Model the fold of this input.
Amino acid sequence: MPAVPEMPDAKLARREREDALGKDIIDECRVQLMLKFRFLDLALWRMDLEPMRVGAAYPLATDARRVIFDPPRVIGRFQLSFDELVRDYLHLVMHCIFRHPFNEDHDNREAWNLTCDIIVESAVMDLCGSRFESEGDAERRQAVSEIRMLVGNLLPGKVYALVKSMVLTPEGQQYRGLGRSALNAWHDLFERDDHGAWPANNDARAQGDDAREDAAEEMSEDDENPDVTADMLRTDSPGESTPEDADAPHDASAGEEEARAAGADDAAEEEADAGADADDASPEEPEDPEDADDVGDDRPEGARDEHDPRDAERDAEREEKEWEDISKQIEMNLETFSKEWGDAAGSLMANLALANRKRHSYTDFLRRFMVHAEEMQLNMDEFDYIYYAYGMELYGNMPLVEPLEYQETERVRDFAIVIDTSESVSGELVKKFLRHTFDVLKSSESYASEVNIHVIQCDAKVQADTRLKSLRDVDRMMERFQVRGFGGTDFRPAFDYVEMLRRRGELSDMRGLIYYTDGLGTFPEKTPDYDVAFVFMDDEERMLPPVPPWAMKVVVDENGIDMLRPS
Done:
């Protein structure tokens, strides 16, 4: 490895002073925010400060574990306006409170990143009021008002759907009267920090092991080697940036520009020094090529390797759990002192309520309806290879034992899926829900191919019943599936119909019933003797009706229909 060149003492001392001053400025931001919003104290001081001259678009960034700051640019931002820097820091912390850095449910990262910025800035403006005002707040409020006119309440799912449609609209065209120029204006108004280090945006979790190693190498830490100045935070997913976005300038003061220029001069001088020293250095190479593969493999047990994607994923999970705990604490504090904050905290509380809903795997939910059974298939878990191999060796082609032909498995036997086909339920969402349900069943090895599932359509009466005896019939059913009904909503006819099927022996071993609905109907009074779950589509703002105590109530998100959330 080439020798690391030493930095001149004066230059190193200047950088150390910049680092210390940058930390002091951010600490003062924390103090001022804590004095105003005491319920945020845990969140404000949760992350360590780490100087890193990365050349990113904004002075601040975070990976939810650290606040990564560019000292010269933080100083320049402070010289421009202390209130602007306070708002930058509060914006960054709010992302973590809402757990935006960990959200991987949205495929269009450009749209989701902008959605997060819009949601956060709206909440921050309501919370701060006239304190820590920003120069662009009037334009931001106007933009938020326009967005509300298009989507209703400012909730993540609705804003994401709007922004994603705008992002996907071809250049020169408009979506609902908004084109690329409006999108670029929103980027300039609402962005305040760099999202490149977010775990959800990290190549290490999105593009496999090779990309993970590359992404880890890009995150060299500046304070470990002060000579490194080319450490770049990834700011956009490949293929999602546009020329307009690349050229869009970030508002900067003269002091910030001078600090950036000074940093660039330092970088040029240090690179020249590094090149001269690197020519004289003789890197040590392993004598045997195989030795090169073993470098770094003998780390102590329990030690963390920051370039290991498995360690990165474990860290992200741990950080998400800690931010979840902080978020719930803030929500509890706000509920306790809600009268004190009034409408100012309304947007914050609404987003906290959404962020703090627990989520569970749909696959795990469907396992509630499985039963144990013995299937005719090889049980390799109880197969003894020693006697088998001995018999083949001794007799040529005669094994001494045969593998067991029965294996205990879990399978769905008698099961019903009821679809509410009233006028208020979307036919496309019905098909999407069914398709995903059967995809889960077909993809899991735990489910048998032979099943007895009734797909029942019902509004105020039973409109259709499709019986599936094999999961191989699902594709054919979905091709011909048509939503029938569009009348009123009454849950009782579906339950009466299921009872009739049980009396006729068609559902003799009834395990459970899933009812997909908007909830606006009449529930049966009698408690069934099998499990029942009412599944609602979450539109984030509608109050969902209560269900009887004998039923489960679950909520599916349209953007992530593979996940279920208990209400």
